[in-house]
TrEMBL record:
UniProt-recorded Gene Ontology molecular function terms: S-adenosylmethionine-dependent methyltransferase activity
Coiled coil (UniProt feature): none
Residue ranges occupied by any RMT2 domain in the UniProt entry: 152-392
SUPFAM superfamilies: Ankyrin repeat, S-adenosyl-L-methionine-dependent methyltransferases
Protein name from the UniProt record: Protein arginine N-methyltransferase 2
UniProt-listed PANTHER family: GUANIDINOACETATE N-METHYLTRANSFERASE (PTHR32379:SF1)
Superkingdom as given in the UniProt entry: Eukaryota
CDD domains in alphabetical order: AdoMet_MTases (cd02440)
Alphabetized Pfam families for the sequence: Ank_2
Residue ranges, annotated region (Disordered): 21-56
ANK repeats: 78-110
Annotated Gene Ontology cellular component terms: cytoplasm; nucleus
Keywords, ordered alphabetically: ANK repeat, Methyltransferase, S-adenosyl-L-methionine, Transferase
Amino acid sequence: MAAMTAGAELWQALCAAREAAEAPAKAASEEENSGAKSGAAPGPAPGPAPDAEGLLAKTQSCLDKDPENASSYQDEESGASVLMVASQLGLIEVVKTLLERGAPWNALDRKGRCAGEYALEAGHQAVVDLLVDHGVRAEMLLGAIEKRKLERGPMAANEDYLKSNVEYTSDEQKLMDPNGDAVMMEWERPLMQLHAQVICQRGALTAGESSEQTPTGDVLNVGFGMGIVDSYIQEHKPRRHVIIEAHPQVYKRMLDDGWDKKPGVEIVFGRWQDRVASIGQFDGIFFDTYGEYYADLKAFQDNLPRLLRPSGVYSFFNGLCPRNIFFHGVCCQVVQLQLDHMGIEASFQPCELEADANADDTWQGVKRRYWWNDTYYLPICVMRPTTAATDA
């Protein structure tokens, strides 16, 4: 019989502690299911708290035997890791030790859950915070986030998308690419209204009046799509409304719909990478392109110090890691730190989505959906008054 590995040994110890903690609740559930329902007394109290010191010593011992195996061990059947179980038990020192010894913070079990979600579900906020901080540091150091594909944009590359045929569905509910993936969808309308409101508020705030009394200043939108956000921007009567659109068919649709004749609108046809150097400065900016990587979002944000005026507001479609709420939170904090280094203060306002956003009917005909959550975290990013470049 083969000797037990250090990882398997640690896994057994952590699982035993979890079973002991869960035993009373399981017993109560079994008693209820057996039919004992007639005025029964409340079930037993939760099981004993895990032996934190003993499990930390066990963790250190296993790591000393085989650091790589012990820190990264995952159960073959469930895919759960030692870090996940330690997070679920709230063993913050064990979690910290495992992370320090190389445990992958972003490993997934067979249901697609990570250690952060185990801690969230168990209510261990201190462990969640520790994992988030570690994840942010890892992303900032390794830049792994920049290699990730944005969910809304699964084509091979931005250039492929620009050469492809796109189609507006007959019911005007979707803009589709040739692979059957959605470029944009009608369920986003309430979000686009909020984005427009956010980026158009700067001009009114500067004047000390409401947006109904004061025309908004200069606004830039990168990526027209279905034109939803631009329609809402128009309601704020911007002085200058610049729209950058690179797809030829979408550009033609804009002209056919008369966007080049709307008040204050300037259409800039081409890739933003080739155009932003010469379009001036703005009071509000929205970025929502398709078929790009996070690195492209970051590359655009690198232009913000010269594009965004002091106290100007920037926002973007926040589709960062939407499948996993924990990873989504890490990505938001990475963006927050990156923008802070540019003198931009970023916050994320939670917005509850309407039911149709995740309804099966909404996604019918879409090959790969790009949204799963009930809450959308709206980016509100404000340039500090002393940071932005001045107009030439």
